[in-house]
Amino acid sequence: METMQASGRAPAPVPIRAGAGLKPQHYQSVIEDQPDIGWFEIHPENYMGKGGPPLRYLEKIRQDYPISLHSVGTSLGSHLPLDREHLQQLKSLVDRFEPGLVSEHLSWSHGYEWYTHDLMPLVYTEESLQVMVEHIEQVQEYLQRQILIENPSSYLQFKASEMPEQVFYVEAAKRSGAGLLVDVNNVFVSCTNHGWNIDDYLSEIPIELIGEIHLSGHSVQQVEGRTLRIDDHGSPVCSEVWSLYQAFISQFGLAPTLIEWDSNIPEFPQLLEEVSSAQSLIDAVAETEVRNVVTG
Amino acid sequence: MSLLAELQRSFCDGLRTADAPDGALLEMLQDDDLARQRFQVYRNNFIVLNGDALADMFPVVKRLVGDEAFRMLATAYVRQHPPRDRTLLLYGDLFADFLQTIPELSGLPYLTDVARLEFTWTAAYHAADAFPLQPDQLQNLSEEAFAKLQLRVHPSLQLLASDFPIHRIWSVNQSDDQDELISLDEGACRLIVVRPDNEVQVRVVSEGEFEFVRQLMASATIGEAFEATNQTDPQFDLGQFFSRHLFDGTFCAM
């Protein structure tokens, strides 16, 4: 059993670099090779066991890298109250691993006494917005820190929605004091699935609220002659999403950027390639910014 | 009921049912002639994501019944027993019992116990850590005092008994490239599953070892446990058992 080491660790803040979602398949590679990656992100729910190897690996990896906790189980958009026990477990992981960022989704997974474990779509009404804001505030108060909220990928819309997703999304963050985790792939997936205009969507986003960016692959299905894009995190980032990301960071500025790959998990080198692709785009924009400053 | 609550419940009903989603639910969706298919994406995700968690938890059961049958069983299980926990780490706690209720599986009488072993393995993997018992903690104890000790087993330790040779079935089916035949005549086995440190161990043990640890877990002292074990298995060799397991992490610090 390892005791917590507050000292001798990589610093907590997540740098403005490319990072990767940490998968158990890659623990050994990360520990042995110490790849030149800015940071790692984990789903805290995968580390909520009482003990065992996952927590030990994470201790080890945390020595060398800043981490971000990306929660999938809080169910911020649920009509049901937040789960105290889950919040406590989240808090103890925050205390133990000192993550640079903590985030959750604009979504829900708890409709009855059971959990969907998948991110379900919200109806964008004032009622939902109030629930969302209240729950974000409760989490932030409990954790004593700001969290970031991620925009969802969605496949359907509710008739009862009173406002566009982007308005609801930004308003939830503004009212609760949360930041935004902009998933560029999700923007692309949702906009194409619903025929929304990507520029309209992005124009709502206030630069100063952006704390993190996500990138991932999605799959494409043909349904009755139409295209549905499914966010499955199971492939490389597609070229349209890379272009959108490049345009996004040129316009909105840089933020820590994560490559998420959660299904059909590749060998570690392939994940590293995706991370370095993101890093190259970050470096290019950073260089332009420096040049602009120098040349005035 | 608020609109949000009504919608979320109705959405959950639609995710879980094997039937076509309720008309009232589809009524709430913006219709572009694809509403049903759009909802179907969420339904698939719900079934597949939780089914994948079961496939990760029960790889040997999956191998024994085949991918297609496993997918059907997992789907039925997800609908019958949707996740009750915020995490998926121990999802599938009722899967072994569930398999027992499926008439089509009666030809694989060992399957339920194999599923129990797989669940037990993962439970041990995520169980609390503990420091192993150290020799210096028992130093200078008289024989009498030693017999009165209550040992604490590691928090990950679990006992599992089966009428079938499930340890052999489980070991042989750890990878796809083995095709050894196992005769059910090999009979019953008793197992201790424990994770003293980083690795989960599955140990085949004698009747006596099994009984002795069972007694200790029920708070018997070493003396009481030995006496009770002697009744069931006079062959049980306490000295040999302790020489192997007293300080190997089977027991934790007092």
Automatic annotation (TrEMBL), chain A:
InterPro entries, A to Z: MbnB/TglH/ChrH, Xyl_isomerase-like_sf
SUPFAM superfamilies xrefs: Xylose isomerase-like
A family per Pfam: MbnB_TglH_ChrH
Protein name as annotated: DUF692 domain-containing protein
Species whose genome carries this gene: Candidatus Thiodiazotropha lotti
